[in-house]
Amino acid sequence: MNPVLEQTWRDPPGLWGTLCAIDHKTIGKRTIVTAFGFFLAAGILAALMRLQLARPENTLVGPDLYNQLFTTHGTAMMFLFAVPVMQGMAIYLVPLMVGARSVAFPRMNAFAYWVYLFGGLFLFVSLLFDIGPDAGWFSYVPLSGPQYTPGKRADVWAQMITFTELSGLLVAVVVIATVFKLRAPGLTLARLPLFVWAMLVTAFMILFAMPSVMLASTALILDRLVSTHFYNPAEGGDALLWQHLFWFFGHPEVYFIFIPGLAFMSSIIPTFSRRPIYGYPAIVLSLISTAFLSFGLWVHHMFATHIPDLGKSFFTAASMMIAIPTAIQIFCWITTMWKGRFDLRTPMLFVLAFFFILVLGGLTGLMVASVPLDLQLHDTYFVVAHLHYVLLGGAVFPLFGAWYYWFPKFTGRLMSERLGRWQFWLFFVGFNVAFYPMHHLGLQGMPRRVYTYPVDMGWGALNALSTAGAVMIAASVLVFIVNALGSRRGGALAGENPWGAGTLEWATASPPPPYNFERPPVVRARDPLWEPVNEPPAEPTQVVGLAERVREALVTTVVDALPSHRLAFPQPTVWPFISAIAVTVMFIGSIFTPWAIVWGGIPVAIAVTLWFWPKRRETMADLAVEKRP
Amino acid sequence: MPVQEILASAGPQAAHIEALWWVTLAICAVVFAGVLLAVAWALLRAPRGDPATPPDLSSLDKPERGTAFIVIAALALCTAGLIFLTVASYVTDRRLAALGAPEVQIELTAHRWWWEVRYQDAEPARMFTTANEMHIPVGKPVLVTLKADDVIHSFWVPNLAGKKDLIPGRVATLTMQADAPGSYRGQCAEFCGLQHAKMALVVFADPPEQYQAWAAAERKPALPPAGEQAEHGREVFVNGRCAMCHAIQGTSAGARTAPDLTHFASRATLAAGTVPNTVGHLAGWILDPHSIKPGVNMPANPLDPDELHALLAYLGGLR
Amino acid sequence: MKKGSEQIFGYKASRSARACCNRKIALTPLLWLVLVGGCEREQRQFEIPPPQAQFAKPLHAANERNAYALSQGKTLFRWFNCAGCHANGGGGMGPALMDDHWRYGNNPEDIYKTIMDGRPNGMPSFRGKLNEDQAWQLVAYVRSMSGWARKDAAPGRDDSLYPGEPENTRDTRN
Questions:
Q1: DSSP code, position A525
Q2: Angle at the Cα of C42 from the Cα atoms of C39 and C44, rounded to 5 degrees
Q3: Is residue B151 within 8 angstroms of chain A, CB to CB?
Q4: Is the model's pLDDT at A356 over the cut of 80?
Q5: Kind and range of the H or E element at A564?
Q6: Which residues from chain B sit within 8 angstroms of residue C133, using beta carbons?
Q7: Rounded to 5°, angle at Cα A509 from A506 and A511
Q8: Which of A269, A317, A478, C93 has a Cα at 20 to 30 A from B240?
Q9: What is the C-alpha to C-alpha distance for residues B79 and A528, in angstroms, rounded to an integer?
Q10: Which of C172, C132, C116, C123 has the alpha carbon at shortest distance from C149?
């Protein structure tokens, strides 16, 4: 630990420090923990739903509350857990993996976190006050329009979307800028870890897809608040316009969640097979082509509408085609495991679960990709099974694996292997018991989004079984929490590289110091820590000369990571937090009156101006280290 | 015949889809087994390691050509499978569009939370309206025109055909045919609000003569009340709350915002397929619909006992 | 217990206490007020159970702050063809309902009486044809037509051809 560097780069202590923090590791951890909190909350809602559905004609939960439950469950899981947690992992790990001292735009990163937190809290507090949205997480019009959802429920949903899409877009910008400009010298794009490639690709997708839902939700708020007619068929609008705009975002969104899951797979498998990944170029190209293809699938959510059949057929072909890049990656991973030396610890167990659960989900995806099959399976429990298999199998299981893998890096201690195994098996068995029967329920005709079902349909037994599985999943999450909390204080000390991995984040202490690397490395290979060091190297292996008393990092070129210039980074500041509060007031006010945008914009403008106003002391300190040519 | 099941097809549309299902399931099962076997083989075959094992970097120097061949071969097989599935999907699409010229035309309008079924005819005087129940002749194609009055709903009778959404402001069509006589339950399949869960309908496939008889009976106006109690019941209906929303052809009750009750007693279910059409259920429904379907637009109707019985007697005679 | 946790976690728990993440939930007072008001606006009361209907105090005051009641009232206004005489508030055979001129008073009880008992010059009586709940929903909606309902609860535009401004923007109160 270098005390001067530590003093320069750390966040201030105490409560004030909590509000001012801009260290990407702090923000990353906060995002992950907050997302996990929303996961728990949305999981409780799911447990209530499953308890209601365990018996036919059950009266535990009435239709109004049930509609709020499933809407909030879907909305929270998709917008407040799945996407942010992946962004949180990226924010924490990407700078470490590319050998940087910080993310690009650390203050904007902090602002994005606060906006996300406030938006998420806003949703759940609304649920507590009976203003929870109740038109589904996809909020189709005209059901969510002014006539059929009275009150402010749909407005709460639409504005929460605005919060999360603002946060998501800003973090995407941060990730892209960090990956392109802040890499260690020698870390060319061809040597970039696959985790970083996947997060980069995801960030680009977010950039292009989020504006679509922003447009859709803004038009919905305008319809409800100031009586525009975007979605009013009688006055020239169109109910189907909503579906196109929403699903143009909605389909790529599931890939925002899935591709980081692939990132985790590509990180854990090489380490636990003790060899570099097989087929690196193929995997990179697969990630990029998945991203492109995912923008061409959205109509497969609309196969039951009366869009012309020829048009729908195009989307069948595209939906089938996107299986190919995923298959490439799966084959490369299996080959890596086949030709390596197997280490079957907890992270690897979760990786193996992917091959069972995601592949099954992907295959049911091929089923619903076909228009005629989808005309039977759409909006039944078959699709509920499919989406949970791909989302949990493709993202959540790898995410838990990633948490076991990187927990030593985040906290300096290893998680318990024994509890990890317990958690894994409870989760794996519970998941399949909960969700596999739903395939059959769908085939037996049970539609989605129903708060109850008749006794004589014969769906009771499978529903009860599914609820039992849900209880097992809850138990497994409890075991995980016990493991995580207990290991934080009582786990075995991890050291720098407990797994013997090859990427750069393992080349610094656990947890990393505020400055990440005392001397950022110079990279000459794909898995830098595995590169054999035989003879003394001719070129430098570390970056020296960066200032220690001011926040300074090295900027390199985009493709070849040649050193370009030194950049001064900002100090911790409370203005991102205050700006986030101003933005929150503006957004929430705009649910009630359009004037909130005008009047609420004033505090936002003031806060952001004061945020960016240069501080004399900082500027003088940065100027003092400038070297004249 | 299992009701409301996708894999129990009773007509050509559902049968084509079921055939595609089995083909797809077979291919997917083979692929799934293949992937699991590959993973299991990798698990069993690879020697064990741990974090202290030095990583094997030999692949960085010499390319793994043999492996590349296997991976590419597997990929080619997958691609071939995907192309096959896509073509099979297109073939099924074309088969679904090949149903013959329809002999019965029905206009289905979805409301929150009931189905308005209007039988079309070239001669306007032969059109008639019913609700929540459809009768179709066995073995003849039926064209259903789909409209929605308020929000998006979806018409779905799994035994007979795939689903189609009913979208306000747009008109869609669906053709189907039942090849076996029987009753087939369908349910709304697009979330439409509070009582989406209880918006079912029943399709009866009758032999052609039986269908014609039914249609002929439906075309007639309501049967006159049989007896004094039923006459009192008609008075209660027409002069009270019922006529504000319901219609009975042949009386002065002509409102269209709730199901048409002209031949109510000949229907099998109440409240859009929620409960059987019996006197007990009907009494409960009239007195307090929200105990059966909370949130419906039909209000509670506090009636005196003799008014209620009179109304029940009248409605029971509307065959 | 300590030994067991050592076995599981592999190390003695360190003595230094770690402060949990200290996050302040930044609910401003304004936000709180807005949300508490939401309780009333968002309730969906489907009906007053019939046996109590005669004894229940009318909900008219609460109806005007309840979005569901106002929305139902607007639906009933359309279904029962009030527009046949009153148009969409501008009046025709019947008087305009969206201005500030009330022949028989605009208190909720007055409007209720108008609907249930009828009035001279052509307003029919709807007693026996409407439920209590339905009548009070209509009362609240009629008052909202001239801006008496709370703005955040008043209905927005319908999904239909609709001339003029929706109720949540009107205000012709006297």
A1: S
A2: 115
A3: yes
A4: yes
A5: strand A563-568
A6: 299-300
A7: 100
A8: C93
A9: 35
A10: C172
For each of chain B's 319 residues, which pLDDT tens digit applies?
678 999 999 999 999 999 999 999 999 999 999 999 999 999 998 899 988 889 988 888 888 888 899 999 999 999 999 999 999 999 999 999 999 899 999 999 999 999 999 999 999 999 999 999 999 999 999 999 999 999 999 999 999 999 999 999 999 999 999 999 999 999 999 999 999 999 999 999 999 999 999 999 999 999 999 999 999 999 999 999 999 999 999 999 999 999 999 999 999 999 999 999 999 999 999 999 999 999 999 999 989 999 999 999 999 999 9
- Chain C residues lying within 8 Å of A585, measured CB to CB: 28, 30-31
Chain B residue closest to A359 (CA)? B32
Interface pTM, i.e. ipTM: 0.96
Q: Kindly state the helix (H) or strand (E) to which residue A552 belongs, with its residue range.
A: strand A552-556
What DSSP character marks residue C96? Answer: P
Q: How many CA atoms lie within 13 A of A175 on its CB side?
A: 33
DSSP string across A235-276: GT--HHHHHHHHHHHHHHHHHHHHHHHHHHHHHHHHHHHTSP
CA distances from A23 to A103, A548, B24 (A): 8, 16, 51
- What are the helix and strand counts (H, E) for chain A? 21, 2
Beta strands in C46-157 (DSSP E): none
A-chain residue closest to B292, CA distance: A57
A481 CA to centre of own chain: 20
| B175-204: pLDDT as tens digits | 999 999 999 999 999 999 999 999 999 999
pLDDT recorded at residue A622: 85
What whole-number percentage of chain A has pLDDT above 90? 92
Query: What is the number of alpha carbons within 13 Å of residue B140 lying toward its C-beta?
Result: 19
Instruction: Tell me the Cα Rg of chain C.
Output: 26
The one-letter amino acid at A593: T
Instruction: Encode pLDDT of A72-120 as tens digits.
Output: 999 999 999 999 999 999 999 999 999 999 999 999 999 999 999 999 9
Q: What distance, in Å, lies between the first and last C-alpha atoms of chain B?
A: 27
- Chain A positions in Cβ-Cβ contact with residue C26 (cut-off 8 Å): 118, 581, 584
Q: How far from B57 is each of A339, A526, B63, B234, C132, CA to CA, in Å?
A: 11, 11, 11, 90, 82
Task: Give, for A418, the enclosing helix (H) or strand (E).
Answer: helix A417-443
**SS3 state at C92:** coil
Contact A223 C23 (CB under 8 A): no
Collect all residues of chain B within an 8 Å Cβ-Cβ radius of residue C77: none
Dihedral angle of Cα A305, A311, A315, A317, to the nearest 10 degrees: 130
Q: Which residue of A has its CA nearest to C18?
A: A489
Residue of B112, A233, A241 whose CA lies nearest to C159: A233
Which of B242, A130, B300, B194 has the alpha carbon at shortest distance from C48?
Answer: B300
Quickly count: other Cβ atoms within 10 Å of residue C58's Cβ: 16
Which tens digits make up the pLDDT trace of A441-490? Answer: 999 999 999 999 999 999 999 999 999 999 999 999 999 999 999 999 99
Q: By C-alpha distance, which of A174, A253, A179, A175 is closest to A210? A: A253
